[in-house]
Amino acid sequence: MAKVSQRCFQATGRTTFICDFSPPRSGDPAVLRQAGIDADFISVAYNPGRAVRVNSAMLAAAIKQHTGRDVSFTLATRDMNRLALQSQLLGAQLLGVENVVVVQGDPFTERDLALVKAAGDITPTGLIAAIAGMNQGLDFRGSKLRAPFDFCTGATVDLGRGVREEAALACRKVLAGAQFLITQPIFDVEDAARFRDAYAGAAGEPLTIPVFFGLQVLEPEGIIFSSVPESVRQELAQGRSGVEIALELCQMFQESGLNDVYLVPPIRRGGARDYPAAQEVLAGARRI
Fold first, then answer.
1. According to the model, what pLDDT value does residue 226 have?
2. For the whole prediction, is pTM greater than 0.90?
């Protein structure tokens, strides 16, 4: 299986797409038919909505086996301690899945906390460093593993929380061992330049690892987050296609040199995803 670092723009000279994919709330193998998306990587999310869903690493392995696509899986620090997290990573290695994106996971609500308890044993930056240690053959106790890992580890960035703050956090994640970054969707390509400048200021050197900037496909009846500009909301309300808006933004990405893209398919009420719309964007992007 190819690693993200091997198929990114910096390695291949062509635009590279990672497409977000939600695990289902069922073990029905029929979900694998939805994963035939023409992206360079299918990235399986971790329990969206804080709901019980198929294990992200297992689903990524099944997609790889069923479709032949390269994959990654997301792993959250919220729900497991170090022992459980590193054991899950060993399982992913056994299944041949070697791209992992580390996140904290959305915090539980008060209602959630009446039913479940967050682990909070390690931060995402700490887990990234732990994976780097496992790549050297050591577990969290410093004990030797039977064989070293060979994981390609990604970290996330949310520029909506503040460019300077996220740049400083990204710097710490890169120092811990992150090999690529994924951002939440952006709608202004200047945000990418501001982030790179802020990173260089925090790190004292330019950012050299791949950054997959988020490109969200919207639809009027879908879930639209607060980060979506009012002008885009109005275009949707007036009947403009979300695919058309995404393709226009994708062209702006490429004109600005943003050639690593994290594609987010439309999210419908109840959590269903419109993967055909994502496929339309991918097909159109290849023609740009």
1. 65
2. yes
